[in-house]
Amino acid sequence: MKDFIIPQFAPGAEPFDDRDMGTPARSGAPVSLTIDGFEVTVPEGTSVMRAAFEAGIEVPKLCASDNMEAFGSCRLCVVEIEGRRGTPASCTTPVTEGMVVHTQSSKVRKIRKGVMELYISDHPLDCLTCAANGDCELQDAAGQVGLRDVRYTPGDNHFDPKGIGARSQSEARLREGPGNPQYLPKDDSNPYFTYDPSKCIVCSRCVRACEEVQGTFALTIEGRGFDSRVSAGAGFDDFLSSDCVSCGACVQACPTATLQEKSVAELGTPTRCVITTCAYCGVGCSFKAEMNGDQLVRMVPWRHGKANRGHSCVKGRFAYGYASHKDRILNPMIRDTIDEPWREVSWDEALSFAATRMKAIQQKHGRRSVGVITSSRCTNEETYLVQKLTRAVFGNNNTDTCARVCHSPTGYGLGKTFGTSAGTQDFDSVEHTDVVLIIGANPTDGHPVFASRLKKRLRQGAKLIVVDPRRTDIVRSAHVEAAHHLPLRPGTNVAVVSALAHVIVTEGLMDEAYIREACDWDEFQHYAEFIGDPRHSPEAVEGVTGVPAAELRAAARLFATGGNGAIYYGLGVTEHSQGSTTVMAIANLAMLTGNIGRPGVGVNPLRGQNNVQGACDMGSFPHELPGYRHVKLPDVRAIFEKAWGVEIDPEPGLRIPNMLDAAVEGTFKGLYCQGEDILQSDPDTHHVAAGLKAMECVIVHDLFLNETANYAHVFLPGSSFLEKDGTFTNAERRINRVRKVMQPRNGYEDWEITQMLANAMGAGWRYTHPAQIMEEISSTTPSFTGVSYERLEELGSVQWPCDENAPEGTPIMHVNGFQAGRGRFIITEYVATEERTGPRFPLLLTTGRILSQYNVGAQTRRTENTVWHEEDVLEIHPHDAEVRGVTEGDWVRLASRTGETTLRAVLTDRVSPGVVYTTFHHPATQANVVTTDFSDWATNCPEYKVTAVQVSPSNGPSDWQERYNEQAERSRRILSAAE
User: Fold this and answer.
1) 3-state secondary structure of 230
2) Residue 277 CA to chain centroid, in angstroms?
3) Ramachandran region of residue 159, left (φ > 0), alpha (ψ -120 to 50) or beta?
4) 514-to-52, 521, 815 alpha-carbon distances in Å
5) How far apart are CA 408 and CA 944, in angstroms?
6) Which residues pair with 32 in a beta bridge?
7) Residue 882, C-beta contacts closer than 8 angstroms, at least 6 positions apart
8) Across the chain, how many H-helices and E-strands are there?
9) Residue 65 and residue 358: Cα distance in Å, rounded?
10) How far apart are CA 558 and CA 472, in angstroms?
11) Which terminus of the chain is less hemmed in, N or C, by CB atoms within 10 Å?
12) Which residues pair with residue 670 across a beta bridge?
């Protein structure tokens, strides 16, 4: 495949080398050697193969790849080394000082041709019709060694179903063969790729990729000698039923068409590619979108992506088909009332309709009667414009984002303790950690590419502590097991983290030198007195948390004394009434042990959606302008007033819950909602529906008629990440470019649509490219002052702060002390949630995600990922199920104080007795109809993770679900052109 790689590099900048160098890079003292007469100097430990590549000499290879350790099985890369006997494999031979290597001697060429001849003798010669034609390493290697004929006569093989032989294919049409016991049919079970054993050369790259890159250990080589073949598990397993997680690592590693994307077989070998960024989770993986013309053939993880380092998961690798799904809306639509069907109209009419309604609302009810909601799925530039729309055009601060609904306690808690509202490390840091503490996160499902890197470090010897009500896969899976699993009672995070800190302080395990040097010592002494109180001891909180005191003490000692300690946390920390308190407690724990400011340590929030960090950075909160600066500060407002040429309201605006409350009360009447489905994702669905129904103008800007659109009056069709330019900021503060792969199917990029709406309201904006929006961001936001599209093209990505002090960004924060001064220890008193269990609702519900689905499922439900998760289910412990007469697969009624729904039960001991768990990916379930309106005391982040519920047998969908589905169906009616 011929690559036309974007980025277009700055003049004089070195392009990224996309070659596979055969073996991993090493670091060490320089070693000089001669290869084919060329002198080359490489680090000690480098393989001869990689050294040859560095010298511009390509050694043939089949089993070698530079994202895996050398294997030495294919024997195609043999070389001669002066002074040594034989012809060693260059991939497994390290360089030595003064070594003289010959890669093209007559002896070497003869051996390679003979080896290749053996491979081809047991391989189908169907290259012209093979899906890998033009993109096959076996084909390339055969040409490289000069193989032009195969001397071997027909015999036993794996590719001929009739058992006739390689040279007698035409004879198969004339007579029936006896059948070939070595032949296995193609495995088509996986929805995204095929496994064709007849084309396998048993190089083991797929098996090694599954082990070393992904860490799933789903594949193996069974049999010996000629009987060797790749197996996906037990004899009855295929690639769908096995432990394979469809990350694509094996497909990418395969040098032939043995493992092949079905999209390539259907659409042909791609001819060009564009580098872009995945639009799923907060890892922010870089991908090559490989194309045929303007048709996307496949997404391949980019080896130079600094977040994913050439790896991917099932969502980013394969689940991009939603962008061309038949459900996608491509034309603007309007309606006068939500009871009417939609009418397709022109862009001008839709925008005029929306602007007229919003203006009328403000004239009647005041300028604060309308607002906006931004999305963590949109680019930084789009999000910036939406918050600018409300402040500069609507004239208020009524802007909120789904980022507040998941990670606003991170911004508040880390801002109070560290002085900055983001994680401290890059993902590479995990390679240097010794003890990992995961609390309230499920990385194998929610952030699988990072989880693969984490599992690799754990297999190398790092220790793991998991704090989670469920026994997630990271607690125990192939070759990985946590040293401690603390299955706390939902809602008791603060008590657990305080107990860990209590042990460290009372046993004198804190890093006093670091605390004196980097933190406020007086505040620490006050904190130490607080946390040392016996009421915070593991024994005292055991009854509250449900975690054995001995386990808490052992975990605390391990974290404090085990070396570099890194903390990773997720929504299981933030989505609580004490979410901000827990984040501050985690920060206290890191400062207490000196685990800040170097590789392998730090406090690392795992952001749920692709641009949660960016949505926060861009000023999407009602009280903060871009860069986390309060709107009440005159000097901050002055910066934006000068840039925007308007006066900014100093009064903080409404958060989403306040908007809904005000709508029910009759004072909030208009909403512009870009890329967010609050009816499915926000808590207390009944209240959300009531608020939306009370509004006079709801504008939904999205790809699909989502659940919120049931109550909308204007629908503006959005563009997918494949159809736009911009940037995303991932969980490690990395700003990555999003590049347009194809033209928007709806006609416009999302930032253009927001600009057109603003101009219909009289704004007069004149942006012509997102790069101009980024220029405005960098000119007004201190942490972005060094960020530009030119800089991103040159470096690939940068991590903010990126300014004159850090022109290439900041991978690790707080290296020489905290940027805002000294670290602050904050008192973290445990306050039990107001949501309590009782006789009517004796169980605690907590919610989360699953690997194959994403957020509200709007994207992944419209892909083949539904094969793995076609409905939300309720995990319940067998003891709780038996008491209620529930068996596996039964319909159950899930009821809380706010609502009820029904779904099927799955009996499992992954949850503790008294705890049940479900996901929220499918609107048919509407899991948030049972969650409450309790929220974090500081940020209003909803308490999704603690809901008192009862579970009882049911006959199927509830009356409410049936009524909801009927209403949703009516709401999605679209008048035909004839009507």
Assistant:
1) strand
2) 11
3) alpha
4) 46, 10, 12
5) 14
6) 41
7) none
8) 29, 36
9) 58
10) 21
11) C
12) 370, 697
DSSP state letters, 185-245: --B--SSSEEE-GGG-----HHHHIIIIII-----EEES-GGG-EEESSSTT--TTTSS--
Q: Which residues contact 292 (CB under 8 A, 6 or more apart)?
A: 267, 268, 269, 270, 271
- Beta-ladder partners of 848: 919
- At position 957, the amino acid (one-letter code) is P
Residue from 480, 463, 489 nearest 556 by CA? 463
| CA pair distance 845, 875, nearest whole angstrom | 10
Confidence of residue 3 (pLDDT cuts 50, 70, 90): very low
Residue with tokens 């409300």: 390
- The string of pLDDT tens digits covering residues 508-545 is 999 999 999 999 999 999 999 999 999 999 999 999 99
Per the structure block, which two tokens stand in for 862? 């419209």
pLDDT for the residue 330: 96
| Tens digit of each residue's pLDDT (9 = 90 or more) over 18-28 | 889 999 999 99
Q: Per the structure block, which two tokens stand in for 225?
A: 């000698």
> Which residues have a Cβ under 8 Å from the Cβ of 274 and sit 6 or more positions away?
4, 6, 288, 289, 291, 739, 740, 741
Strand partners, 437: 465, 567
- How many residues are given for the chain? 979
DSSP three-state, residue 255: coil
pLDDT at 164: 66
Q: Kindly tell me the sign of the dihedral angle through the C-alpha atoms of 940, 942, 946, 950.
A: positive
d(CA 424, CA 410): 12
Phi/psi of residue 400, nearest 5 degrees: -145, 170
Check: CB of residue 376 under 8 Å from CB of residue 748: no
One-letter amino acid of 735:
I
> Is the confidence at residue 940, as pLDDT, over 50?
yes
Asked if residue 935 lies in contact with residue 400, where contact means CB atoms within 8 angstroms, the answer is no
Judge contact between 93 and 81, C-beta under 8 A: yes
Residue 150 makes CB contacts below 8 A (sequence gap 6+) with 117, 120, 121, 166
Rounded CA-CA distance 313/447 in Å is 9
Domains of the chain (ranges, CATH numbers): 1-152 (3.10.20.740), 156-324 (3.30.70.20), 349-406+612-734+741-777 (3.40.50.740), 408-605 (3.40.228.10), 843-971 (2.40.40.20)
pLDDT tops 90 at residue 404: no
Q: 894 in helix, strand or coil? A: strand
**CA 160/CA 171 separation, integer angstroms:** 12
Contact 565, 434 (CB under 8 A): yes
Q: What is the pLDDT of residues 942-963, one digit of tens each?
A: 888 899 999 999 988 888 888 8
For residue 628, which of 427, 790, 935, 404 has the smallest C-alpha distance? 404
Give the closest residue to 950 by CA, choosing from 873, 888, 887, 880.
880
Cα–Cα distance measured from residue 210 to residue 188, given in angstroms and rounded to the nearest whole number: 19
- Structural contact between residues 264 and 290, judged by C-beta atoms closer than 8 angstroms: no
Largest CA distance in the chain: 92
Residue among 37, 38, 68 at smallest CA distance from 47: 68
CA 30 – CA 54 distance, rounded (Å): 13
Q: How far apart are the first and last CA of the chain?
A: 49
Structure-token match 């009056």, residue found: 713
Residue 488: Cβ-neighbour burial (10 angstroms; 0-12, 13-18, 19+) = buried
Residues 836 and 946: their CA atoms lie apart, in Å, by: 9
Question: Distance (Å, rounded) from C-alpha 888 to C-alpha 874?
Answer: 10
The residue among 66, 64, 93 whose CA lies nearest residue 81 is 93
Quick one: CA dihedral 170, 173, 175, 180, positive or negative? positive
Task: Give the whole-angstrom CA distance, residue 559 versus residue 639.
Answer: 44
For residue 389, give the DSSP letter.
I
CA 49, distance to chain mean position in Å, is: 34
> Residue 782 carries which side chain, given as an amino acid letter?
P
Residue 284 half-sphere exposure toward CB, CA atoms < 13 A = 32
